[in-house]
Amino acid sequence: AQKITQTQPGMFVQEKEAVTLDCTYDTSDPSYGLFWYKQPSSGEMIFLIYQGSYDQQNATEGRYSLNFQKARKSANLVISASQLGDSAMYFCAMREGRGSGGSNYKLTFGKGTLLTVNP
Amino acid sequence: EAGVTQFPSHSVIEKGQTVTLRCDPISGHDNLYWYRRVMGKEIKFLLHFVKESKQDESGMPNNRFLAERTGGTYSTLKVQPAELEDSGVYFCASTERGTSGGREQFFGPGTRLTVL
Q: What was the pLDDT predicted at A109?
């Protein structure tokens, strides 16, 4: 079974509008972390936002916010006031557990959503 | 402060040849991870080093892949012999030891491997 599911292969949004990228996850571990990364056409992976399973509030980082619904196991990324530079592939990822003594924080990724911002 | 660097940025080789990818983590980061994205599929974990020790290599596809991290600094990932299905982008990431909650893995720019 997929641990991270991103159901939107592609999304389009008008510049200056908000957009929500969906992510659902599957884990039986009570301790986990959820991440969003952006990958522009240049290829690098850019960390955007993190949500811990025990965090009481939804994470926010500038124009990015994470709509964390624990009971539904969803962690949607909301980008407000989209900009042309937001056009990129977006990956949702999960880290399960607190890691072993070596702090293994390996990530499990979804397949990604390609966001296109139109002028 | 320099980020995670990877070399080469792009490699094109023939099937059956050997290729070695290199990753330099952020200085002082004990944890080093290798990931791979095959075209059209999700990014998948390959292995994890803590300093020079392999902590988890459960994601390594087969014994044609050999990763090392001598001295606990940079790491190499050798593919020998390369097969067509090895084509993809290989990412390296690093984190500090004991980073609270593992909030961020710093990724390198990736190496795009093409096997012809």
A: 95
Residues in chain B, pLDDT under 70:
1, 97-103
* pLDDT score, position A102: 45
Token code pair at residue A90 = 């977006």
Q: What are phi and psi of A7, to 5 degrees?
A: -85, -10
In B, which residues are within 8 Å of A4 by CB distance? 42
Q: Which residues contact A45 (CB under 8 A, 6 or more apart)?
A: A37, A38, A39, A91, B91, B93, B107, B110
With 0-12 CB in 10 A as exposed, 13-18 as middle and 19+ as buried, what is A4?
Answer: buried
Q: What integer pLDDT is reported at residue A75 of this predicted model?
A: 97
Using a CB-CB cut-off of 8 Å, the residues of chain B touching A109 are 35, 42-44
Closest partner residue to A106 among B42, B56, B98, by Cβ? Answer: B56
Strands B111-115 and B88-95: antiparallel
Q: What percent of chain A has pLDDT over 70?
A: 93
- Residue A37 near chain B (CB below 8 Å): yes
Residue A100 has pLDDT above 60, yes or no: no
- How far apart are alpha carbons A57 and B53 in whole angstroms? 37
HSE-CB for A102 with a 13 A CA cutoff: 17
